[in-house]
């Protein structure tokens, strides 16, 4: 069997109708810095390094539906964001432009939707 190449997960990419607008939301939410800023492609990096979060403009973007209903665009992935104070984190997310989803499946998790409609979870351990 051949030796496998070295693979390293370097980042996550979210599609959006406006890459810069969605990147600005996550920059405010997470406090990350812009590493690359182009009209159709923006990359954020956290202060400790690690994987990046990038945003790619998609002309035909359709926001996913949460919870999934089988008739509309399905969620392909979501971000889990650990927080130390769930109530304060939700208030911060809403202040940044998120909205709290109507359906909440767990007590220690809050599902929010970013301005483009991507679900993300704020949670405490």
TrEMBL record:
<dbReference type="InterPro" id="IPR037523">
    <property type="entry name" value="VOC_core"/>
</dbReference>
<dbReference type="InterPro" id="IPR029068">
    <property type="entry name" value="Glyas_Bleomycin-R_OHBP_Dase"/>
</dbReference>
<dbReference type="Pfam" id="PF18029">
    <property type="entry name" value="Glyoxalase_6"/>
</dbReference>
<dbReference type="InterPro" id="IPR041581">
    <property type="entry name" value="Glyoxalase_6"/>
</dbReference>
<protein>
    <submittedName>
        <fullName>VOC family protein</fullName>
    </submittedName>
</protein>
<feature type="domain" description="VOC">
    <location>
        <begin position="8"/>
        <end position="125"/>
    </location>
</feature>
């Amino acid at each position: 069997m051949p030796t496998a190449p070295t693979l390293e997960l370097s980042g996550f990419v979210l599609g959006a109708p406006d890459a810069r607008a969605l990147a600005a939301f996550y920059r405010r939410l997470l406090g990350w810095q812009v590493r690359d800023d182009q009209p159709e492609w923006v990359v954020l990096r956290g202060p400790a390094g690690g994987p990046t979060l990038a945003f790619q403009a998609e002309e035909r973007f359709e926001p996913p539906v949460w919870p999934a209903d089988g008739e509309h665009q399905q969620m392909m992935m979501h971000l889990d964001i650990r927080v130390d104070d769930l109530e304060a984190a939700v208030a911060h997310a809403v202040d940044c432009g998120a909205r709290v989803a109507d359906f909440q499946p767990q007590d220690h998790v809050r599902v929010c939707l970013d301005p483009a409609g991507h679900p993300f979870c704020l949670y405490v351990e």
